[in-house]
Structures are given as structure tokens and as C-alpha cells.
Specification:
Blueprint: H1 8-12, H2 14-33, H3 39-81, H4 86-99, H5 104-127, E1 151-152, E2 163-164, H6 170-198, H7 203-208, H8 211-227, H9 230-275
Antiparallel strand pairs: 1-2
Helix pairs in contact: 2-3, 2-5, 3-4, 3-5, 3-6, 3-9, 6-8, 6-9
GO molecular function: membrane insertase activity
Membrane topology: Multi-pass membrane protein
Protein name: Membrane insertase YidC/Oxa/ALB C-terminal domain-containing protein
């Protein structure tokens, strides 16, 4: 299959020095020192490490999206009330954002920060899994390998389980699709709870929590992953499952924080009554 090539100019340019080369070095380091010297396992571990590094920004993004969803009923009322006065509508909407301390850019900025890293991982996994790429390892790299073996699960010595990461794999494409379905189901579940709690019946919320997100995205993921090298299908599945786990942790954490606020507010309201 045709392969995207990371040229020498890409490796030595600012993007290469800042992202491609460091990511390649970490990947090969994991490949060398993880027992079994399996490039697929190295990809899984590197992907999880990247998601852990990005966790704070991901949490900020989800929290901001949740805050926006909470005030959506107020926004819908304002749009209906001032539908004939766009200027007043904008002013009232901005007032609601300010009163609830909601920053629209807070939900987008973390995602923008993640994009260059995700793009760099894509390029490295797509075109950097070759022995020629080892020329870009740092001079001080310990125990640099002579070549990269790109067969995933080769240590099993079981032919049906062994996958060439540079070629397409229907099994990893299906795995990526199922992973996307699981994450979509997690997102849909928590968004339904949030919409019910905040009476958010906006068209956008219904669309994002409906069949399109739950069923169509996984199918699209499967089709795209089937057209790409197996390394990217493995990366896609790993990052999606990791994000799903992170979502569960974040939503539980936010729910606990909100419950504490509710309990504290309730106690504050009950104290004057008790004193009387």
C-alpha cells in the first residue's frame, strides 16, 4: 500500500525536532526495554503515557463542556425571549456566561493543544515504523536497535494473532470501531444524565447524544482504520479506550464535587431554620 513518507526535511524541521524525533525516541526506547521487544505493545504504552500527560487538559475540556451544558436552558430561553433583538440577545447571553463563570474557549483550547501531538503520533505511526527511521535516534540513545521488527504479538509464535503493523488489519480496524462505540456509549450515557438534570433539550445536545454519535462514529472509525496501517488502528483503539476510562473518572469526580456543593448549600439553607 502507498505509504506517507516523513522526509528528512520533516525530521529536521521545527515540527520534527519538537515532536516527531522525541516521540520516535520514546517509542523505540519502550520497544527496546519492554520485555518481548514488541513494537505494538510499545505503541500501546506510548499512547497511554500520552493520554496521561494530556489528562489535565482533557479534564478541563470536559468540565467546561459540562458547564456550558448546565447553562444551555438559560441560553435557549434568552434566544426565545430576544429572538427579534440580536444585540440584546448577545448581551444577555454574555451576561449569563459571566455570571456562571463559563469560558467558551476553555473547552476548545485543550483540544487545540492536543492536536499537534495527535498529528505527530499519526505521522510517526504511519510512516516512521521503519528501520531507516532509526537514523533519527539521539546520539546518546542506550542500546539502539539495528532494525525495527513491525510484527505485533510476534512473541506468541501464533500465526493467526501476529499482525504486521505496516499493513492493513481488519481485526484491529474492528477493534478500533468497537472501542469508538464503547467511548460513544460512555459519552452518551453521561450526557443524557446531564441533560436530564439541567433540562437541556437543545437540538445540538440531542444530536450529539443520539444515534449519530453512538452508531455512525464507530462505523466511520472502522472504515477509516481499515484503510490505514494496523499501527494506526492499534493507536486509535488504545487512545479511545483510554479516553473512555478517563471520561468515567472525570465524570465521577465532577459528580462528587457537585454533590458536595449541593450538600453545603443545603446545610447553609437549613442553619437559619434550625436557629429559629
Amino acid at each position: 500500500m502507498d505509504r506517507l513518507v516523513i522526509t528528512d526535511a520533516m525530521w529536521t524541521g521545527w515540527m520534527g525536532k519538537l515532536l516527531y524525533v522525541p516521540l520516535l525516541n520514546v517509542l523505540v526506547l519502550l520497544y527496546v526495554y519492554i520485555p518481548g521487544s514488541d513494537l505494538g505493545i510499545a505503541i500501546v504504552v506510548l499512547t497511554i503515557l500520552i493520554r496521561l500527560v494530556l489528562y489535565p487538559s482533557y479534564k478541563t475540556s470536559i468540565k467546561s463542556q459540562r458547564d456550558i451544558q448546565k447553562i444551555q436552558p438559560y441560553i435557549e430561553k434568552i434566544k426565545e425571549q430576544y429572538k427579534d433583538d440580536k444585540k440584546k440577545q448577545s448581551e444577555e447571553v454574555m451576561r449569563v456566561y459571566k455570571e456562571h463563570n463559563v469560558n467558551l474557549f476553555a473547552s476548545c483550547l485543550p483540544l487545540i493543544i492536543q492536536l499537534p501531538i495527535i498529528f505527530a503520533l499519526y505521522r510517526v505511526f504511519f510512516a516512521g515504523l521503519t528501520t531507516e527511521s532509526l537514523a533519527h535516534l539521539y546520539s546518546w540513545f542506550p542500546n539502539a536497535p539495528i532494525e525495527l521488527h513491525t510484527t505485533f504479538l510476534a512473541f506468541t509464535n501464533w500465526q493467526p494473532a501476529m499482525i504486521d503493523l505496516t499493513e492493513r488489519s481488519i481485526f484491529l480496524a474492528i477493534f478500533a470501531g468497537l472501542s469508538q462505540f464503547f467511548q460513544s456509549w460512555i459519552t452518551n450515557r453521561y450526557q443524557k444524565k446531564a441533560r436530564a438534570a439541567n433540562s437541556d433539550n437543545s437540538v445540538f445536545s440531542k444530536m450529539m447524544g443520539g444515534p449519530m454519535m453512538l452508531y455512525i462514529f464507530p462505523v466511520i472509525t472502522l472504515v477509516i482504520a481499515w484503510t490505514l496501517p494496523a499501527a494506526l488502528g492499534l493507536y486509535w483503539a488504545t487512545t479511545t479506550l483510554t479516553m473512555a476510562v478517563q471520561q468515567i473518572i472525570i465524570y465521577h469526580s465532577l459528580a462528587k464535587q457537585e454533590q458536595k456543593v449541593i450538600e453545603a448549600t443545603q446545610r447553609a439553607e437549613d442553619e437559619p431554620e434550625n436557629q429559629n
